[in-house]
Design goal:
By secondary structure, the chain is α+β, with helices and mostly antiparallel strands. It has a single domain, classed as CheC-like (Chemotaxis protein chec). The protein contains 6 helices and 8 strands. Strands 1, 2, 3, 4, 5, 6, 7 and 8 form an 8-stranded antiparallel sheet that branches. A hairpin with a 3-residue loop joins strand 3 and strand 4. Helix 1 packs across helix 4 and helix 3 crosses helix 4. The relative contact order is 0.23.
């Protein structure tokens, strides 16, 4: 655990992980409908991390990645990001288009497909979180980026207003037809949003 990562009680960690597991399960169900095949999901690794450590949690700021990002409005404003590594981005988009070759990041012609499927996954995740917290999350039109992880995250940070120093970081793995798709769902809450959500989850954030 990072020295700057807040230490939570076992009860708080279990509660947070269970919520993230439910939300990720909804995302997996949505993915299953999209690709028309069974999707298995691993138990997510859920943490509340310092903003400065998000890129490192993904494997370092220079790791090649593809991301789908949405700004959130409503009672809990902020942003949410689906961040995938090269192989996972290729696999996920390939299921929708059938056009990508192994090892290639999505080209411009297929970025819209990646944006669409990523937006659906994030939307399903937010719907589940809204049902649990009783907050209504209002996502705007998703944006897509293919770059190094640090560059993608840096662009999002520059676009935020009134941001907290802490973020929700959920690492999970989907398995589709025996192929693993690993990714992170990162929620960047605006000032006040983190407290509202964690209070509904029974977690204390100083």
């Amino acid at each position: 655990m990072s020295k700057r990562e807040r230490e939570y009680s076992e009860v708080e960690i279990d509660a947070f992980t269970e919520v993230c597991n439910i939300c990720a399960g909804h995302a997996a169900a949505a993915l299953s409908k999209i690709v028309d095949t069974k999707v298995e999901i691993s138990v997510p690794v859920a943490r509340i991390l310092p903003l400065s450590e998000v890129a490192e949690s993904f494997g370092g700021p220079e790791r090649e990645a593809a991301g789908v990002y949405m700004r959130l409005e409503g009672a809990c404003p902020g942003s949410i990001l689906l961040l995938l590594d090269r192989e996972s981005a290729v696999a996920l988009t390939g299921y929708l288009t059938g056009k990508l070759k192994q090892g290639e990041l999505p080209e411009r012609a297929t970025l819209s497909a990646f944006q669409e499927i990523g937006g659906m996954l994030l939307g399903s995740y937010l719907n589940a979180l809204g049902q649990i917290t009783k907050y209504k999350f209002k996502p705007l039109v998703p944006a897509v980026a293919v770059d190094m992880a640090g560059a993608i995250i840096g662009t999002i940070i520059a676009d935020l207003k009134g941001i907290n120093l802490w973020v929700f970081n959920v690492e999970t793995k989907f398995k589709v037809s025996n192929e693993e798709i690993a990714g992170h769902i990162v929620m960047f809450p605006d000032e006040g949003t983190l407290k509202r959500i964690t209070e509904r989850l029974g977690i204390s954030v100083e």
